[in-house]
Automatic annotation (TrEMBL):
The chain crosses the membrane at residues 37-55, 75-92, 153-174. The lineage of its organism: Eukaryota, Sar, Alveolata, Ciliophora, Intramacronucleata. The keyword Glycosyltransferase does not apply. It comes from Paramecium pentaurelia. It is a multi-pass membrane protein. GO terms for biological process: proteasome-mediated ubiquitin-dependent protein catabolic process. This is RING-type domain-containing protein. Pathway: Protein modification; protein ubiquitination. InterPro entries: HRD1_E3_ubiq-ligases, TPR_SYVN1_N, Znf_RING. Keywords: Membrane, Metal-binding, Transferase, Transmembrane, Transmembrane helix, Zinc, Zinc-finger. Residues 231-271 form the RING-type domain.
Length: 377
């Protein structure tokens, strides 16, 4: 199905399998008096499904990172994901899910082992959904040569949501065990670890959104002449970019992608934590917007003055034409100055300036430089 496993895949799967075996050993010790073939079969089935889930998730990451797309490998992995989803859904529609519902909604006591496995099988589709979405979206980007700028932020939000769902399931399981069997240490440890991970990811996700918004407000560094004028994220030359507090400069889009894709925000070059002074950045951004607003208003005033001048000249030409029609072409003592005649396309020029005027206003509103109620009079 997967072919030969890579070394890092083997290490990851072995580590997770060891942890799962420890959990199984603890459960076997806890339920040694009520062991039966159904319990052993469900245990082995859970371990086998978990291993296939882990390998699929790891393999998806490797296939996305490869520069060339192997059609056969991607089709195999896609079919594996679909098969795993089908198995997870079918398993969760069996009696394990019904037993969980019976207990929580009707208080009916069921065999503890079946309820325990029901919760474990409920976690499997939650764990695989986010990696599957990442895989499909990244493959779509590679095939269509497109890119979603806010993709990483959405993935981070979905990862936080996945952690919350897993925590809810484990809290339900811990509550059930506490009420029926007593305190179970291994479930408490798992629940505590997920709660800590959720709080950590929520904090990191908040910092991600905050940093990404602040990146837009950092003043651009124009024309970088230093010998090290390469963006270390995309490895392209830097014409302009955003400068971090450590002094290193990167493209704005690259910096947003880097921050969105890493919960630990640090400079790619010096590994220092990315720290941005919000008050200073807001003050600089306010000053920059004020300066841009003044420049824009000045340009709008100049365009409006030119429009008014051209309209006056157009009126002059119309009057002169009327005078020439009534007094004769040779009698020009009543005609206005001949400079007005030089503008043979006043109407076209007026329309062009009017369009330019409106376009500047629209761009100013879109860029947040001016607001509708602050348009120049």
């Amino acid at each position: 199905m997967f072919g030969e496993l890579k070394e890092i895949e083997k290490i990851s799967v072995i580590d997770k399998t060891k942890r799962k075996i420890l959990e199984v050993a603890y459960l076997l010790f806890f339920f040694y008096e009520s062991l039966d073939w159904q319990f052993i079969f469900l245990m082995l089935w859970l371990i086998a499904l978990s291993i296939i889930h882990w390998i699929s998730i790891k393999r998806a990451g490797f296939l996305i990172a490869e520069s060339q797309i192997n059609f056969n490998d991607n089709v195999k992995l896609l079919m594996t994901f679909i098969m795993l989803f089908y198995i997870d859904i079918k398993v969760n529609n069996l009696k394990q899910s019904s037993q969980i519902s019976l207990y929580f909604f009707y208080g009916t006591e069921e065999k503890f082992q079946n309820v325990l496995f029901g919760f474990e099988f409920m976690l499997l589709p939650i764990r695989i959904t986010l990696p599957f979405l990442k895989y499909v979206i990244n493959i779509f980007e590679i095939l269509t040569f497109s890119q979603f700028d806010s993709k990483q932020i959405i993935f981070s939000g979905l990862e936080v949501l996945s952690t919350i769902l897993k925590l809810c399931v484990q809290i339900m399981l811990f509550k059930y065990v506490l009420n029926t069997q007593g305190f179970l240490l291994i479930l408490f440890v798992d629940t505590f670890e997920n709660a800590f991970a959720m709080l950590k990811k929520l904090k990191a996700f908040y910092n991600q959104i905050k940093l990404v918004r602040m990146i837009d407000k950092i003043q651009d560094v124009e024309k970088i002449d230093s010998p090290d004028s390469t963006c270390l994220i995309c490895l392209n030359e830097l014409e302009n970019g955003k400068q971090l507090s450590c002094g290193h400069v990167y493209h704005k889009s690259c910096l947003k992608t880097w921050i969105s894709g890493n919960f630990n925000q640090f400079c790619p070059k010096c590994k220092q934590a990315i720290k941005l002074d919000e008050d200073k950045i807001n003050q600089t951004d306010s000053q920059t917007k004020q300066l841009k607003k003044q420049i824009l208003f000045q340009e709008l005033r100049e365009i409006r003055s030119n429009i008014q001048l051209l309209q006056i000249l157009q009126q002059c030409r119309n009057i002169q034409n009327n005078v020439q029609n009534f007094e004769g072409i040779g009698n020009v003592q009543y005609a206005l100055p001949c400079e007005a005649i030089k503008y043979s396309s006043e109407v076209t020029e007026i329309k062009r300036l009017q369009n330019n005027y409106m376009n500047k206003i629209i761009r100013g509103i879109e860029n947040g430089i001016i607001e509708n109620h602050l348009l120049p009079k």
